[in-house]
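Weekend entry, working from home. Most of the wet-lab plans are on hold until the incubator is repaired, so I used the time to fold the two sequences that have been sitting in the queue since the last round of cloning. Logging both here for the record. First:
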Amino acid sequence: MEYTKIKGLDKKCSRFIIGTMTISDPNGPEEEYKKLDDAWEQGVNVIDAAHSYGFPRIGSTEIALGKWWRDRGINREDMVITTKCAHPRYFDMKPFLQRTAVHSYDMESELHDSLTKWHTDYVDVLYLHRDDPNTTVAEIIETLNKFKKQGLVKVFGAANWQVDRIKEANDYAEAHGLQGFGIVEEHYSLAEMVGDPFMQGSGSLSGPKYKEAINYLVGQGISCASYSALSGGFCTGRVTREQFEKDPDSVPGNLKIGYCYPDNFTRLERATELAAAKGLTVPQVCMAYTMSGELDVMPIIGARNHEELMSTLSTMEIRLSKAECDWIDLTSDEKPF
């Protein structure tokens, strides 16, 4: 396993992160525990969760995770627990009614709830799941630093935030001698997220328009935990241009909304060509792309079985050249092979 460092955290962190969104049963179920066991045995020690995970029982994911690590006798200090607070509270989906939860009282309540479910007295990384521009960065940074002073949180993260707000928050922190955000969780993939497949204000760093944002994160030493690094299966070749043009209704709605656009199909076709030339699979090339740039990317994986897990982890040994990345990302038309 390859390890990296998250800014502000004195622990080794696996380059890959265990994703847990699919765990909805507070008791596991056992097949989900086996997936966690499998990743853990391969050296993946960073676990991604959220206060809002678990459907229809919100919070059941963290209950299951708390049971898992204690039942397995895992040393808490060997784990890097990351969780999220401040997800919008939904009252009704039709009509769509919600309120934001980016307030000090919501953050505090949800953090203590998560600690109880995890059976731990601190989390390594606490993300704000969404942003609310109506809440000042002063309130957010002051609240997070209070948690830090109390020993409840080590590192602060921003999930689905715009980078200009992250910069504003970190500038406030620096000006007041406080800790700012040390990691972000955003969509980062070869395929650009054109529409929002989750329809919840999802954040992305994919595509050329985010170059300046990436440069800022690199300059600040801020890592990116990348969710949906294969864009919901789009980057596996699950949907071809011909299939989409012939029968768009056969394509799952999330892929149609998020990724089925001409430039993304061209990226996928170039990745397919590069994979054939290098003797790799298309998913391996697309995953390697996310890990071959300047940004410290930590992909969140949710492999369905051992074979998928090992295929994903094998990309640690694959690096693409800048010329290869530029070609498949359409920033260059010069074929590198």
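Second, folded right after the first finished:
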Amino acid sequence: MDTSGISRKMLPTDLIRFKQQGNLITVLTAWDSLSAAIVEEAGADVVLVGDSLGMVVLGHATTLPVTLEQILHHTQAVERGFNSPVKSQPLVVCDLPFLSYQCGEDKAVAAAGSLLKNSSAAAVKIEGAEPEILAVIERLVRMGIPVMGHLGLTPQSVHRLGYRLQAKDKPSQMKLISQAIELEKAGCFGIVLEHIPGEVASQLRHQLKVPVIGIGAGEDCDGQVRVTADLLGLSSKQPPFSPPLIPGRQLCIDALQSWIKQQHLQAKNPTKEASEQKPDY
């Protein structure tokens, strides 16, 4: 039987093939069924259920309060928002939230395993490349759990790094490059580089076999990831490396204000037909 035309669900390792073929990888975040349906229809290759939902959806000042249960809850909602057949859906990657992997390999395996077991997620994303983190990544990969790395501005380290450009001097750039190489050796199928100089990301793109996914890391990357709310202009504070494509927040406010004003006008000047209209119940 000829199976050449049969598609299958995307695997994390397919992103490496994308890199080899020179295909740009697009990654967008989603946090519920509505945002998932939008980014899926837009054509994103990867949907990231990031702990950024803590700030975008839950109103926290940082990503630190996000729990594993909340990540699972929102991932399941994202899964329900997809409309295409399973084999055609984007790859779903989940952030492992703060303290779900920093406390040892066993806890990390249990956390990541529960996400993959109870949702459509096919991989997890982990921040950092300290020796303890590398050991966790190696263990997860051995257990069959695909891992995406994350270096540069790592939001879970906000109290140490802030939300500033990272790897600005030569020593810190050399350290980041060394860490990226270690992440590849540990088994990561891709690495997110956030808010670092573009020349560093470009160097790693050509040095690593796994794809480099940039966010505020220049254009010479194998792919780009963005917080969907930022691109749509829905965030109250926009990061400098992610300008909005549309003024979505103001468009929504204007549209809703127009509707509210219309309702008030109708209440003050009801038409004869409206006053005579009986309720349906």
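Plan for Monday: verify the second prediction. Residues 1-6 have pLDDT under 50 and may be disordered.
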